[in-house]
Amino acid sequence: MPDSPAATDPSAIGPLELVEFPHPALRRPAKPLLRLDDAIREAVSRMFEIMYEAEGIGLAANQVALPYRIFVVNCTGRQGLGEEHVFINPVLSRPRGTAVQEEGCLSLPGVRMDVRRPERIVVEAWSLAGEPIKLDLDGLFARVVQHEFDHLEGRLFPDRLPEAAALEVRHQLEGLAQVFAGKQSRGELPTDATLVAELDRLEAARCRA
Ligand code: NI
To answer: Using CB atoms within 10 A of its CB, is residue 39 exposed (0-12), middle (13-18) or buried (19+)?
Structure first.
């Protein structure tokens, strides 16, 4: 059995992969990152790779089981096209207007629903270079940033649905939960306790002064 990445370095980040509902990282509010190091820069680059492979346009750290307030966006979803954005410790403000658009989520395969959100928002964050970012966004970019910010809060887009629509997706979520539990019972995925212990370790490494 290979050593866990923590065996040699308590801040080590192991191989990252996309996690699906109901992995505990998805419901755990992410913590502000206090340190930027090479492992984080590597993790962000891997997040872009995972996002492109899965044909997504945004990905939050929770979705690769990292408990940090980081998300990445490329509204084109295509490597080499458009612009890559990294948001670290983001804050949203000035919500204006309302827009309804269909959303999906790489951690909720097969689930797509119309979601109502503010049409415009301001996002402030830090870049990977440690520089401040402030953007006033609308359209798809504003929507993706709000969806990814929700991930950092442990929220998923079905949480934002009105009751009837939420009922409609409930059986899909139950189906995903059964698949996840099945993988755990066959030993293909660690238990929740093991997954949570790993999140605790990563949080202790970079979110405490
Ligand atoms: Ni998502």
So the answer is: middle
